[in-house]
Specification:
Number of strands: 7
Shape: elongated
Radius of gyration: 23 Å
Distance between the termini: 48 Å
Strand content: 5-15%
CATH superfamily of the largest domain: NAD(P)-binding Rossmann-like Domain
Number of domains: 3
CATH class of the largest domain: Alpha Beta
Largest sheet: 5 strands, parallel
CATH topology of the largest domain: Rossmann fold
């Protein structure tokens, strides 16, 4: 598997299951995609999400019924407590050329990573299903250790534009940008004030 960032606007995601696992996956996709959740019952967390709901006991549904529900889907997700039913949904998805993610059962061809994001960035972490706890640990560590990452990206973007007008050497521009990234004083200043951090950059690296 390789990581990708995919634009899901106007894409249809069908999730089978109404419990907490299904709710987490629905919350992940509902920010951008058209999400349909199929289950015989729904957790309170799903009630609060902007998703379409279809009440159905999958164990009583035929393959034809499920194919009808999945028609036009970009991704099918099986998040039922019954691994055999999850695998069954996966087989139907694969047969119909629909990307598939499986919460429990035979692996699908999509894995949903642990994600942290800000205004300027998105970071996804995956252990390919081997240890979700490790993925979560790395995400939480990044959120704590780089709490000012958005501000640093803004600073880097502005500095990069400034360097184009004052530093003719592309190699030296890259070096300065990296030196700023590795400067603990600038990270500390960003936690207090972006103006303070920019002042340090001007003094240390632009000599202004």
């Amino acid at each position: 598997m390789i990581p990708l960032f995919v634009d899901l606007k106007e894409k249809r995601i069908v999730i089978f299951g109404g419990g907490e696992v299904a709710a987490r996956k629905a919350a992940y996709f509902a920010r951008e995609a058209d999400v349909q959740v199929v289950s015989r019952s729904f957790s309170k967390r799903i009630d609060g999400l902007c998703v379409n709901r279809t009440t159905l006991d999958v164990t009583c549904a035929s393959d034809t019924d499920l194919e009808g529900i999945l028609q036009g889907a970009f991704i099918g997700i099986a998040a039922l407590s019954d691994s055999e039913q999850n695998t069954r949904i996966g087989i139907i998805c694969i047969r119909n050329g629909i990307l598939f993610n499986n919460a429990d059962g035979e692996p699908g061809d999509i894995m949903i990573p642990s994600v942290t994001s800000g205004k300027n960035y998105t970071i996804a972490v995956s252990t390919e299903g081997r240890s979700p706890a490790v993925s979560r640990f790395i995400r939480e560590h990044l959120e704590v250790s780089f709490s000012n990452l958005d501000a640093m990206i803004d600073l880097q973007e502005n500095l990069r534009q400034r360097l184009k007008s004052v530093e003719p050497s592309q190699k030296r521009r890259r070096e300065i940008l990296r030196e700023v990234l590795q400067d603990p004083g600038i990270w500390q200043a960003l936690s207090r004030s972006r103006i303070e951090a920019e002042g340090i950059v001007k003094m240390r690296y632009l000599h202004e």
